[in-house]
């Protein structure tokens, strides 16, 4: 009995300091002031991303228009054909689905600057080849005795160059946004922080940086179509598209210079392998599994059986990213994000075509697109405010965003089914209300997207962040291809409500899965960091952890 009593007293004496440490850690976490990263460290990176984003958006906007003009010239018809644009889109999306994971693995083995520079070089050179092919594709065909062509000459080669450019775009965005940006933010955090404090500081700093990056994207998405539209109107469709491709190729050197300056001002840690920096691991990374646990470690080298077999093993290793992706703790959140791409209730070509069929003017469509972009920009400020000022976690903001998105999409879907499509009697009030709900849903979408972006930055090991995000990009390409195939099966505009219902069901499934995952993951992560904060004072007093 005496031994049991003494043991109980020992437990009681140990539990009291633990409770005090837990209370102190919670108090410090709530009163911790936010840390602001100097803008000079991130401004060159913002400038480099703006230049890259502007070139990519301009080329992607002008390419479908150019292919339609090329088909009109080739067929000698004013109507033209969607076949060249369909070939180009399937080629680019298919190449991203197949090759993105392997390229992401290769990017993880390089410093962020080298991966970004090689991707920019691939994009610039492929755009230059497209610019060389464009004059040949719009060359007038022979006189009428010669047969016409539905697909212009050089479409296959043009699609191949476009696929290389699309792959370069994917890897470049991952290198800048998912690796370079969080590496710079982590290295700028102050030292001597507890695990939970470091997690909160990193959340706030990354939320501000991600919001600025997203505002750059939104601004370019709103302004670039206006600039390119004026250029195509002033110079003509074919000539203006060629000028856009030439300007994109000519911007290669400024892009490389901007990337070099971004690396110079960000610090030498931006050039280290695997995205590691002097600050060590991120706050969320302690919750995530190690690279060895998730299959990210390099496999054992094959026996010396000759170069053909070794080459085969290296090739298989490049395509082992799918196993790594499926073993990630953020798998559910990533798949929920992929489900967003299987939808048509967004400012895109399918919805614009449906609106044109319903008699909506081009000016009204332009207003709708601008309103959707403004809602996205407001969402970036809201995300930054909720994480930075209100001290809400990125998981809470993500759950709020997906709830608001569904709260707007479901009424829009109900109104879509009530519209008399095809009768020519669609009232402007009903259509305006439908478009208003769709535009408002973009606020919740971009809050959710911003939260998921930061989750993929902080909850994935830095050594495999490019590889995991490349697999996610591959799945988004697959979702887009499935949506295109579904639109071929439901090609009539009268069947657009059914297509929208399928897309909304995908969003609902992703939203529910994200709500479930975020709540469980955040609860487990908080318990883990409280445990670490309690154990650290004991270790500082001179005790050593058990081996």
Automatic annotation (TrEMBL):
Q: What are the transmembrane regions?
A: 20-39, 46-70, 82-103, 115-136, 156-177, 216-236, 242-263, 330-352, 364-383, 395-419
Compartments where found: Membrane
Q: Name the Gene Ontology molecular function terms of this record.
A: iron ion transmembrane transporter activity
Where are the residues of the annotated region Disordered? Answer: 276-299
> Can you name a GO cellular component term?
membrane
- Its membrane topology: Multi-pass membrane protein
Cross-referenced InterPro entries, in alphabetical order?
Ferroportin-1, MFS_trans_sf
Q: Provide the alphabetized UniProt keywords.
A: Ion transport, Membrane, Transmembrane, Transmembrane helix, Transport
Recorded family membership: Belongs to the ferroportin (FP) (TC 2.A.100) family. SLC40A subfamily.
PANTHER family from the xrefs?
SOLUTE CARRIER FAMILY 40 MEMBER (PTHR11660), SOLUTE CARRIER FAMILY 40 MEMBER 3, CHLOROPLASTIC (PTHR11660:SF53)
One Pfam match, given by its short name, reads FPN1
Q: What does this protein do?
A: May be involved in iron transport and iron homeostasis.
Name of the protein in its database record: Solute carrier family 40 member
